[in-house]
Amino acid sequence: MPFSKTEHAPPPPQKGLTPLTNADLITVKPARMSTKITQQKIAEIVGGKLTQGDPAAALTGLNSVAEANSGEITFLGNLRYLPTLKSTHASCVLVAPGFNPEDAPEGIGLIEVENPTLAFSAVIREFAPPTRRFITGVHPSATVAASAVFDPQKVSIGPGVVIEDDVVVGDGTAIHPGAVIGMGTRIGSNCVIHANVTLKDRTLLADRVIIHSGTVIGTDGFGYEFTQGQHKKIDQLGIVQIDNDVEIGSCTTIDRARFGRTWIGEGTKIDNLVQIGHNCIIGKHCIIVSQTGISGSTRIGDFVTMGGQVGVAGHLEISSRVMLFAKSGVTKSLKEPGAYTGYPARPLMEGRKMLTYPAKVPELIDRVRAL
């Protein structure tokens, strides 16, 4: 049922809480980082070993290999950047075990660590704290139904948020400005719902889910029946379930199921501008890159990777540990793990051959004409 007039009024401030203001919500990071951390300390933070350089030398910031300056740390996550590393102005670099010091500028600090890319994320957290603070409470401009359940001293509800009837929000969750949380939705602990996200009725979010701005979860599935010269809408009565540690980018849409659930498995990461149709089941720890579209009732296994602009037809099954290269078109089920490419998607080597054949057509035509 819709909110009553009373429920639309801003809730009274909770005892012991200071109402949030817009100024509270944002902390502007200074243009230049002021933190200073020694090279030895960085090595300890990332669980690595300083193999070259002064342990006491202070680092004041971080940057990419190409743009780093003196006093900054960078990382070598891919050997294709090795030529760039040789001319970097960075004072320190994270490298993989066994790195040859002769491939880096003379005197630069070297920290060997198992995964430089992942380790650099830990360095980022040290130098650049979050720009948005978690401030507990409910902003006076938020509209919260009386039947919503959460501890106002353990959540952060920002300006203009709408929380409808029978919503449950777990401790440590932040809901940023303008988000709309539909009736009966359940949000777990330590989730982040960014600005202008819409969670439609009865959406289920587990713990540590991150949803970025503009995404809509739980829109009606695209279901119609053509009869008597018209497309008649088919009611969509199911839900969307999103498991632990899922992250969803901006302006992505995930449709509710016709019956049952559309289900996103634990640890899956979904990029911006992705469309997932009704009743799809996405397995655990998948990667789905921007502008991919997955049609309804398709089932995808665990550890599947989809490059940008992949298209998947409906009512198919994709095995676990499948990798789909960008722009692949899946028209039938893929029941074996492995890499696929092209349209229609074929095993990688076969697909690459098919991609090279068109370039040979002019030569073949000339040969035929010469016969």
Explain this structure.
Among the domains are: 37-127, Udp-n-acetylmuramoylalanyl-d-glutamate--2,6- Diaminopimelate Ligase, Chain: A, domain 1, CATH 3.40.1390; 214-230 and 251-371, UDP N-Acetylglucosamine Acyltransferase, domain 1 (3 Solenoid), CATH 2.160.10.10. The N and C termini lie far apart (79 Å). It has a twelve-stranded mixed beta sheet with strand order 8-10-13-16-19-24-27-30-33-36-38-39, covered by helices on one side. The protein has a ten-stranded parallel beta sheet with strand order 9-11-14-17-20-25-28-31-34-37, with no helix packed on it. An eight-stranded parallel beta sheet has the order 12-15-18-23-26-29-32-35, with no helix packed on it. The chain is built from six helices and 39 strands. By secondary structure, the chain is α/β, with parallel strands linked by helices.
The helicity comes to 10-25%
Rounded to the nearest angstrom, the distance between the terminal CA atoms is 79 Å
The average pLDDT value, as a whole number, equals: 89
Tell me the CATH superfamily of the domain at 214-230 and 251-371. Hexapeptide repeat proteins
Protein structure class: alpha/beta
The rough form would be described as: flat
Q: Any idea what the CATH architecture of the domain at 214-230 and 251-371 is? A: 3 Solenoid
Side by side, the strands of the main sheet go: 8-10-13-16-19-24-27-30-33-36-38-39
Please give the number of β-strands. Answer: 39
- The number of helical elements comes to 6
Q: What's the CATH topology name of the domain at 214-230 and 251-371?
A: UDP N-Acetylglucosamine Acyltransferase, domain 1
Radius of gyration: 26 Å
> Strand-residue fraction?
25-35%
Largest beta-sheet characterization: 12 strands, mixed
Q: Uncertain runs with pLDDT below 50, 5 residues or more?
A: 1-32
CATH class of the domain at 214-230 and 251-371: Mainly Beta
